[in-house]
Amino acid sequence: MLSLWTSGCVSAGTAAGAAGEGAYGRREERVQIGSFASVPAVAVSRRFVYAAGTDGVAIYDRAFNRWLPPLSTGAGPDAALFAQPIGFLVGDPLEDALWIGVPGAVLTYRPDTEQLQRTMVVGTPDFLVFDRSGNGDAYVRSAGQYTRISRVGITSPVMSLPPSSALLIPPTLTDLYRQFPTLRNQPQLFLRTQAPQRALRPATLLAGAASPERASEVWLGTDSEGLFRFDPTFLQATPLPYGLMSPGVGALALAADGVWAASLGVTGMSPGVSSVMAFGAPGSLRGGLSFVSNNLQQFRWLDGTIAVPLAGVRTYVMATRGARAWIGTERGVVRMKLDGANETLAWSALDGLPDPRVLSIAARDDGAWVGTMRGLRFVPDSGDGPGKRPVMAVSGARALDNMAVYALQMVGDTLWAGTESGLLAIAQPMQEATLLRPESSDPALRRPVRALAWSDTVLLAVTDDAVLQIAPRSARPVSRLEALRVSQVGQAIRAGLDERAVWIAGPEGVLLQTRSGGAVRWLRRGIELDGPALDIVASREWFWIGTPRGLLRLRRTSDGLVP
């Protein structure tokens, strides 16, 4: 990540070490991804396109048609870039650089060298043009006066600007409206990315920039559809989605080549829900699922439908099974198909759920077990048939009525449930079943179990003060992972494990421990993380962490932890 100095330049590699962000040597090893559905500012240089979103600046390489790691807000030093309002965002027509006006300074970022230059000025800069002759220095207006800034950051005051014939003036959206009237009159004709059964959204342009060397290429920023590349000659627009469709991530689920992120939504404190469930994100015109590929090059946004709107809906948990995603929200459970149809169905308290707040899901081929604040139910999947099937209150589920079910995990034909009354198991829950408890005298198993995870032959159960290992398929006794202090992350929200490591996420951060050597790593809120860790999943190479600010991708080391 980048560090801001009062003057001069600093490279990304040097800044990462100075910022205390571990041993990440390259920007792509630690990437914070925010929402870029709303793009209020766009700039273009000779090679790169820069799109400002609610959580930073996305950078697109026009030469190789690929995305670079963004300049992002968060707990790292990049956060200083956007801690204050931006006066302007201008691409350099002479070199591959971006000029950003912030209160008290002009920032120049060069993606090729990952170099950031900060030049101090008085007031808030709000206008920038370039000198057509010489070295192409910039003229910046700030506090009613102009300052000339050289390519190396040397400033000198000027009384007035040279004549317009001696200046390179970046075109604004108003200039593009004059050149291409269709942009003003009917932008919805070529900017719409509407899908069937989705609510109609107006296409509103917020920003635009023209490529300096291509007359047939214009880049447009919209209020909810992201970035577009527009060909004014043939009136064709190509959407280039990047990042998340809305601010904040409420739940995560791994995909074969990436991760699905459910929108966090906006919520307040709900009665009976602990504080870790009350985190919200800024409002957004959209809500649903965002797909992010492992290489951060493919992005896909799936909205809720007219019948099942998801904008502003708080999500707690998500599980995927085949081409279906099951999403637990504050209004019930939603099943969304991840194929081209994107069919969406929802079940609420009116359909038989004991409570609309869905806290846990265990997906199966024929449906999903759904844990709520007041009990457990089975929601059958209708497959490819029309409509939805009714919620089933089988005997195994009835045993947990009026009980908060925080976590669910299927192990063979046994359903394990982390509840407010401790860890419980239901053998063959679709049939006549009774509740079972693990054979252990450990009192932690009778206290609220907040998270469950399964790998190999080990079931992981996390309470407010203990992490326990259970071997359901063997006679090994229940044991504790003493090195993991759950209090360091607050009340646990999610847990996981694989053959290399164990991890626990909570409002105060993330705890990681190797399964071989026992080494522990703590990612703290406000230092390594930009906010509460609301969910975490892991692939072979990456950790994905969802926070109210967005999605964080961290490279895993050979021992399964992070540097």
Please, could you describe this protein's structure?
The chain is mostly beta strands and 563 residues long. It has a domain at 30-240. 5% of the residues lie in helices and 42% in strands. It has five helices and 45 strands. It is elongated.
Compact summary:
This protein has 563 residues and is mainly β.
Which key phrases capture this entry?
563 residues, mainly beta, five-stranded antiparallel sheet, 5% helix, 42% strand, elongated
Low-confidence stretches: 1-21, 267-282
Largest sheet: 5 strands, antiparallel
Beta strand count = 45
> What overall form do the CA principal axes indicate?
elongated
In angstroms, what separates the terminal alpha carbons?
14 Å
Number of helices: 5
Query: What is the CA-atom radius of gyration, in angstroms?
Result: 26 Å
Helical content stands at: under 10%
Secondary-structure class: mainly beta
Query: How much is the average pLDDT?
Result: 86
Provide the β-strand percentage band: 35-45%
Strands across the major sheet, in which order?
1-10-9-8-7
Helices and strands, with pairings:
Elements: E1 9-11, H1 12-18, E2 30-33, E3 41-44, E4 48-53, E5 56-61, E6 66-72, E7 88-91, E8 98-102, E9 105-110, E10 115-120, E11 125-131, E12 138-142, E13 145-149, E14 155-158, E15 167-168, H2 173-179, H3 182-185, H4 188-191, E16 205-210, E17 218-222, E18 227-231, E19 236-240, E20 249-255, E21 258-263, E22 288-293, E23 299-303, E24 315-321, E25 324-329, E26 332-337, E27 344-347, E28 358-364, E29 367-372, E30 375-380, H5 395-398, E31 405-411, E32 414-419, E33 422-427, E34 435-436, E35 449-455, E36 458-463, E37 467-470, E38 479-480, E39 494-497, E40 501-506, E41 509-514, E42 520-524, E43 535-538, E44 542-547, E45 550-555
Antiparallel strand pairs: 1-10, 2-45, 3-4, 4-5, 5-6, 7-8, 8-9, 9-10, 11-12, 11-15, 12-13, 13-14, 16-17, 17-18, 18-19, 20-21, 21-22, 22-23, 24-25, 25-26, 26-27, 28-29, 29-30, 31-32, 32-33, 33-34, 35-36, 36-37, 37-38, 39-40, 40-41, 41-42, 43-44, 44-45
